[in-house]
Specification:
Distance between the termini: 70 Å
Helix content: 40-55%
Number of helices: 12
Shape: globular
Structural class: alpha+beta
Radius of gyration: 24 Å
């Protein structure tokens, strides 16, 4: 199923060229928008207020984007509930301007390429025929908080979110959607949001790990990737973040547990040795949501002020985490280490008294 979805991703780019045509909100038909009253509509008012149109579940567009998103979720797809889908419209001048810039740069990339290269990666790119150049427009996923995504829709991208392979805006191809998912955060209703964007990749260059590059290395290149054959990171330089990236959909979804995101983050922490709760804290607060984040902050603040011991901290964390077995195992392991250290300290103190 996933392989079929990836193949569709590759073949859809010529169709997608038409898909990102900006539409006025008033031009939406009942088939693609959702005219039914929605009791939960208020939670998405920031999106609709900023030029997004809610797409009805019965539409083919909804099914297509949902299928692509769940394909990227891979083994976690069954546990993921897509709550809503919104599509960008041309109801604001800012959106129209960014769309116009995207098309202008697309034309410039086509002229520059002159058919001398073929784009590689998730999409085959777009060209009118052999020898006429390739724009290499790919799908890219971007995860963030509801507030950040709302700001992107309203004003465009404003910050670089990655620096492992150059400093720029990082987006994830569908096959590596989980990487982008790790940057999302649950809102007050426990819902996460991801942007599906068209990314004008043009001619890509490989950016080595650890590079601090901020621009193309030469006029020949447009964007960066970590691997040409199977890119995991699509790197758009800050100078082009609002001309080479055009958001087209917001996928809002729920996952029953945040362990999907944490496993990726924890595996990264493990590369640097045993995981301490202190090292885990910034990862935990990112995914626990506003309420639990505040509780976590208070627990660690109490520790810093010596109001609680480290063992009491572990017990408090255990209550906040709930029944997530992965985190329980890590916290219990940390508690055991603390107990061993305490025992060792007692033994050392006892020996010193004897001396």
């Amino acid at each position: 199923m996933i392989e079929e979805e990836e193949e569709q991703d590759q073949l859809s780019m010529s169709v997608d060229h038409q898909e990102y045509i900006v539409e006025d909100a008033s031009s939406e038909t009942d088939e693609s928008s959702d005219p039914r009253p929605d009791a939960a509509a208020d939670q998405f008012k920031n999106f609709t207020r900023n030029g997004m149109i809610k797409i009805g579940e019965e539409s083919s567009q909804y099914e297509s984007v949902k299928r692509r998103f769940l394909a990227g979720m891979k083994q976690y797809a069954r546990d993921t509930d897509v709550v809503s889908l919104h599509k960008i419209s041309g109801s604001t001048l800012a959106v129209q301007a960014r769309f116009a810039a995207f098309r202008v740069y697309e034309g410039a990339v086509l002229k520059k390429s002159e058919g001398k290269w073929q784009g590689e990666g998730e999409g085959e790119g777009e060209g009118e025929g052999e020898g006429e150049g390739v724009a290499n427009i790919m799908y890219g996923w971007y995860g963030g908080s509801k507030e950040e995504i709302t700001q992107i829709i309203s004003h465009g991208f404003s910050r670089c979110n990655g620096q492992s392979h150059g400093v720029g805006v990082y987006l994830s191809p569908t096959n590596f959607l989980l990487d982008g998912l790790a940057s999302s955060s649950a809102d007050e209703n426990g819902i996460r949001h991801m942007l599906l964007c068209n990314v004008l990749m043009g001619k890509m260059e490989v950016i080595p790990a650890g590079s601090k590059q901020t621009y193309p290395s030469s006029e020949e290149f447009d964007t960066g990737v970590d691997n040409l054959e199977a890119p995991r990171r699509l790197v758009v330089w800050s100078a082009f973040m609002n001309s080479h990236i055009f958001p087209i959909h917001i996928v809002s979804f729920k996952i029953p547990s945040f362990h999907v995101l944490l496993r990726n983050q924890i595996s990264e922490l493990k590369k640097h040795g045993p995981i301490s709760v202190a090292a885990l804290f910034p990862v935990l607060v990112k995914f626990l949501g506003p309420t639990k984040k505040a509780l976590m902050a208070k627990i660690f603040d109490d520790l810093r002020k010596c109001k609680i011991t480290r063992l009491q901290l572990v017990k408090s964390l255990r209550r906040v985490v709930g029944d997530d077995q992965l985190l329980i195992a890590i916290i219990e392991s940390y508690r055991d280490k603390l107990a061993v250290r305490k025992h060792q300290a007692v033994q050392v103190g006892h020996r010193q008294q004897l001396i």
